[in-house]
Write a structure and sequence with these properties.
This protein has about 375 residues and is of the alpha/beta class. The chain has nine helices and 14 strands. The protein has helices at about 40-55, 70-85, 95-110, 205-215, 245-265, 265-285, 310-315, 320-335, 360-384, and strands spanning about 65-70, 90-95, 115-120, 135-140, 140, 145-150, 165, 185, 200-205, 225-230, 230, 290, 305-310, 350-355. The strands form four sheets. It has a seven-stranded mixed β-sheet with strand order 1-9-8-7-4-2-3, sandwiched between helices. The chain has a three-stranded antiparallel β-sheet with strand order 12-13-14. It has a two-stranded antiparallel ribbon with strand order 5-6. The structure holds pyridoxal-5'-phosphate. Pyridoxal-5'-phosphate (PLP) binds near residues 166 and 169. Pyridoxal-5'-phosphate binds next to helix 2.
Length: about 375
């Protein structure tokens, strides 16, 4: 039967993600629009974003945190182009964004000593093979495969290499121990429901040491440059952004951070996210046509929850047809305005992807489950 109740917020996209509950454009009323980001007030606003982010994420005092151009991609590429070169690199990939970093390292930077560890969608690499005396590059959470690293035990404390982590769909949702990593990146458009195009880059003292002692052999565009005359450009990490940020997005980021503080900080963000995953797991357990793409619970993401369709009817369809059928489920729900953007990433196996980050309310997921069953039934019936 077609359900009647609809989620209060149908946004289940994996980026940009749902705004916090209760968000409206009035949250931006105090934005410093029309003002210089280099003014005293502008810099104070940027610094406030950095300070609140540092506090919520538990960034160690001796780590730098700065806002950089071009979203998480910009922050990651800035780190890769600036830090890699002097050591061999182990790069890990379990979905398309990780594969993107592999391409950067092997085909663009063309580093000579690279070991690539990749896993299929839904799986993770054998982390015990990683050599932490080499530089290590990985995404904490594979947004397109629904797989996350189970812990950070495989990164040794006395490593010689740098651990460079794309943590964009993990921070503010999972306990990412930043003090165990050397370069951590994310963008605002994920767990706190902020806007795209601004990246955040966090650097350990060892990463700074690398920046100050090593000059890459390749040219660096201005938006990647973090040093001047062999010294770190400290300003980047003290509200002097490299180029002009959007003060509207800044205000929105601030709104998300204040909300995170109000509800209880990282612990509560993580609790809500895990509760969302648990709810999905409950529905999956009682639903014969669906299963998690990640078979192993320890590596299952609580933010980008990727599901596959295991109904024998669906599995027997030719690949093109099954992809079409899965897309139909997502489109039907979109046309009913109960779930937007839940089709999987274009390169991922056919199925569904639900964002479970803290801005998504548990009650909305619970309301969505009967709709998923209904939409799947409709698509199956229509194609029989
Ligand atoms: C793991 C991962 N890395 C990188 C990106 C790219 O992020 P952005 O579009 O903010 O640059 C995404 C976006 O979804 C992602 O999920």
């Amino acid at each position: 039967m077609k359900p009647t109740a609809r989620p209060s917020n149908p946004c289940f996209s994996s980026g940009p993600c749902a705004k916090r509950p209760g968000w409206s454009v009035s949250a931006l009323e105090g934005a410093l629009v029309g003002r210089s980001h280099r003014s005293k007030d502008g810099r104070a606003r940027i610094q406030e974003v950095l300070d609140r982010s540092r506090a919520i994420l538990g960034v160690p005092d001796d780590y730098r945190i700065g806002i950089v151009p071009a979203s998480d991609t910009g922050a990651m590429e800035m780190a890769l182009w600036s830090l890699l070169g002097p050591r061999g690199v182990d790069v890990l990939a379990w979905e398309s964004f990780g594969q993107g970093w592999v391409t950067d390292i092997t085909k663009q930077l063309r580093l000579p000593d690279v070991r690539v560890f990749s896993a299929d969608y839904g799986d993770i690499c054998d982390l015990s093979q990683v050599d932490c005396d080499r530089d290590v590059v990985f995404a904490w959470n594979g947004t397109t495969s629904g797989v996350r690293v189970p812990n950070v035990d495989w990164i040794s404390d006395d490593r010689e290499g740098l651990a460079i982590c794309d943590a964009t769909s993990a921070v503010f949702a999972m306990n990412v121990p930043i003090g165990k990593l050397d370069a951590v990146t994310y963008s605002w458009q994920k767990v706190l429901g902020g806007e795209g195009q601004h990246g955040v880059l966090i650097l350990s003292p060892r990463a700074v040491e690398r920046l100050e002692s090593y000059k890459p052999a390749w040219p660096l565009p201005k938006i990647f440059r973090m040093t001047q005359g062999g010294k770190l450009s400290e300003g980047i990490f003290k509200a002097d952004t490299i180029n002009t940020p959007s003060m509207l997005c800044m205000e929105d980021a601030l709104d998300g951070l204040k909300w995170a503080e109000e509800i209880g900080g990282l612990q509560e963000l993580a609790r809500r996210t895990e509760a969302n995953l648990a709810a999905v797991a409950g529905w999956v357990a009682r639903t014969p046509w669906v299963d998690f793409l990640a078979a192993e619970p320890a590596v299952r993401s609580c933010t980008s929850i990727c599901l596959k369709i295991v109904d024998p009817w669906f599995v027997a369809l030719p690949a093109e047809e099954s992809a079409k059928a899965a897309k139909q489920v997502a489109s039907l729900l979109e046309s009913e305005r109960v779930a937007f953007d839940i089709a999987p990433y274009r390169d991922a196996p056919p199925g569904l992807r639900l964002w479970g980050g803290a801005t998504v309310q548990l009650a909305d997921l619970e309301t969505l489950f009967p709709w998923l069953d209904w939409a799947y039934g409709e698509v199956k019936q229509g194609r029989d």
